[in-house]
Amino acid sequence: MAKKAAEKAKTGSKPGKKAKAADKSARAVTLDAENKELKRKLNKLRKKLKGMKPAAPEPAPAPAKAPPAVSPLAPAGGFPSIPPIEGLRLSAVAAGVKYAGRDDVMLAELPEGSTLAGVFTKSSTRSAPVRDCQAKLDALAPGSEGGFAILVNAGNSNAFTGAAGERTVAEVAAAVSRTLAVPAGHVFTASTGVIGEPLPADRITGAMIALRDGLAPDRFGDAARAIMTTDTFPKGASAEIEVEGVPVRIAGLAKGSGMIAPDMATMLAYVFTDAAVTQSALKAMLRAAAMRSFNAITVDSDTSTSDTLMVAATGMAGNRPITSARTAGGQAFAAALEAVLRDLRCRSCATARGPRNWSRCG
Q1: 25 within some domain
Q2: Burial of 106 by CB count in 10 Å (0-12 exposed, 13-18 middle, 19+ buried)?
Q3: Is residue 67 part of a domain?
Q4: How far, rounded to the nearest angstrom, does the alpha carbon of residue 302 sit from its chain's CA centroid?
Q5: Could you give the number of structural domains in the chain?
């Protein structure tokens, strides 16, 4: 009896066939539900991935911009050796007008008693500095008291800037006037570079003390480099002559490489001499020499808004003042002035954008 009861109890502990079937069916339902949920999530993920654009690859770092290659027509030996002009001091600093890591403002200081003359672009859209220089030269009376200054910045032409450009010219001229103790009407400015952008005057005025402290008679090369834009090398030229037995020096610097056509160009040129020359004679000789030099070249047939050519004579050589190009001294000076302008003209052609040769320069 006990053995039969034990066997019956053992048999009763196992689930029956119906229980096993029910359990199997429940597990199948659960797995089917899980599979459906996984498929739903997978389809949703596929749709999301299909609508997504592939991520753009990380851009490669831009290579460092190489400086422009020096023109194959550049003079051998680099910037020429230029002797100091008595009474003239030059300076150059990096003011950050546009460029980083290079000088971009030049300052020239001239003594009281100097005479000045200039020729400018004939464009109807002359820049604010050009119009200001023209007005000051027209108003300049012979024998005006006080020294003179010329300031040039590269990187921004202050052209097509309206009344704001005129205010900027006045602001810069006033800063030079205060720093060098010269009349504001004796401060001539020029700007070369990008057109249509406001000139950051504060960067120039903030460099005035450094410009003043850096003034020296032997900085022609630094001044020439400071006014470069797309030029591939700095340009300078000089001549030494005798005027009625008195040694006289003439020296100049220039920039320009494009938008060069007759009636000047995207070109700035400044020539200095220690000769004594009256203002009227200097003006007449400059105009004649410009016609046979800078007004006789073309690179791309474009005229610019900022073209400026100025000559300043300190009068410290000790010669009898030249009053006309018809005198012996006047003829010698006029010929030397034209030779310096022609030299600068040739160097401007040599640095122009793209040329590999020219047919004539002389």
Answers
A1: no
A2: buried
A3: no
A4: 19
A5: 1
Cα pseudo-dihedral 152, 256, 309, 194, rounded to 10? -50
What is the pTM assigned to this prediction? 0.76
Taking the C-alpha atoms of residue 130 and residue 133, their distance in angstroms, rounded to an integer, is 5
Q: How many CB atoms lie under 10 A from the CB of residue 79?
A: 16
User: To the nearest 10°, the Cα dihedral for 63, 67, 69, 75?
Assistant: -170
For residue 115, what are the β-bridge partners? 313
* CB-CB contact of 350 with 73 (8 Å): yes
Q: Please indicate, yes or no, if residue 81 is contained in any of the structural domains.
A: no
Which of these, 245, 239, 299, lies nearest to 271 by C-alpha position? Answer: 239
Non-local (6+) Cβ contacts of 57 within 8 A are none
CATH number at residue 325: 3.60.70.12
Which residues are catalytic, by number? Answer: 266
pLDDT digits (tens, 9 = 90+) for 223-261: 999 999 888 889 999 999 999 999 999 999 999 854 444
Segments forming the whole domain that contains residue 97: 89-350
Report whether 336 contacts 241 (CB < 8 A).
Answer: yes
Residue 355 located in a structural domain: no
314-348 pLDDT, tens per residue?
999 999 999 999 999 999 999 999 999 999 977 66
Cβ burial 134-158 (10 Å sphere, 16+ → b, else e): bebbeebeeebebbbbbbbbbbbbb
Handedness of CA 282, 285, 291, 295 (dihedral sign): negative
